UniProtKB/TrEMBL annotation:
The chain crosses the membrane at residues 39-57, 63-85, 111-133, 162-185, 192-210, 216-240. Keywords: Membrane, Transmembrane, Transmembrane helix. The keyword Transmembrane helix applies. InterPro entries: DUF2189. This is DUF2189 domain-containing protein. The keyword Transmembrane helix applies.
């Protein structure tokens, strides 16, 4: 295989059983409490951001709905420092907050590029969601009750179904392309395109496991949000550490000597 082909080809992946995400959660939970400070600080920042969104858009739920779902798209970027913590724990080191913060240094343009792509996707969905609801809702949507009554339970409109379809059409490919991409970029010197292709290959190799993983991420995040954001303090780092173990499980380590970016 030529050098250009090696730089764009997906790395080897391995399929996993449908219930394997439960093991990722267990390993992620253990990592969180072996080195709690970086994770809890990340979670606190995520909870504070969610509370800020709730405050700013409390009377404009049409914007809030898109903002929170957009947050799910960019959350993997927030977790970058925690992947580094899990890697250090895996190597028998004693990581600190500095370990997590070091991952944010703008030395690696690949992480910056991928983060910007996710941020653009999240912003696009927020704008699309807000435009759709404000333009086609039969009545103003200013609160969760309004959203439930006017959009979700409406007998005279397919707005909620269309909103879900559009959100799923964006979320599914974003999840597939990013499920292991950021941990891979942190851990190995491959290109963004190679990381995305490997992520897609890993997802397509284990559809039942990926379906369960996506469901667990969604449910745990919703639980964290439903607790007035307080639950995100634990949920965000828990899922971040678990995502590192998902990457380690799905992409065999013997590919580490692959082509540089």
């Amino acid at each position: 295989m030529s050098q250009p082909e090696r730089r764009t080809a997906a790395l080897r992946v391995r399929p996993v059983p449908a219930t394997r995400p439960l093991q990722w959660l267990a390993l992620g939970w253990a990592d969180l409490w072996r080195c709690p400070l970086p994770g809890l600080l990340h979670g606190a920042l995520a909870a504070a951001f969610g509370a800020l969104l709730l405050t700013l858009a409390r009377d404009r739920f049409w914007a809030l709905a898109g903002s929170f779902s957009g947050f799910l798209l960019v959350a993997p970027v927030v977790a970058t420092g925690l992947y580094a913590v899990s890697r250090a724990l895996e190597q028998g080191q004693r990581p600190t907050l500095r370990t997590a913060l070091a991952a944010w240094r703008p030395r690696d343009h690949r992480l910056v590029v991928f983060g910007l792509l996710l941020a653009l996707a999240g912003t696009g969905w927020v704008l699309t969601s807000a435009s759709l609801i404000t333009r086609f809702a039969p009545a103003p949507v200013g609160s969760p009750a309004d959203f439930l009554r006017v959009v979700v339970l409406s007998d005279h409109s397919l707005l909620f179904e269309i909103w879900l379809m559009l959100g799923s059409a964006l979320a599914a490919p974003m999840f597939i392309s990013s499920v292991v991409a950021l941990p891979l970029l942190l851990d190995r010197p491959h290109s963004v395109l190679q990381a995305v292709m490997t992520s897609a290959s890993a997802a397509l190799a284990s559809p039942p496991a990926m379906a369960l993983w996506a469901t667990l991420i969604l449910v745990l995040t919703l639980v964290g949000m439903a607790s007035f954001m307080v639950g995100l303090v634990v949920v965000v780092p828990w899922l971040a550490h678990a995502s590192w173990h998902a990457y380690r499980d799905l992409v065999p380590p013997d590919e580490a000597a692959g082509a540089p970016a």
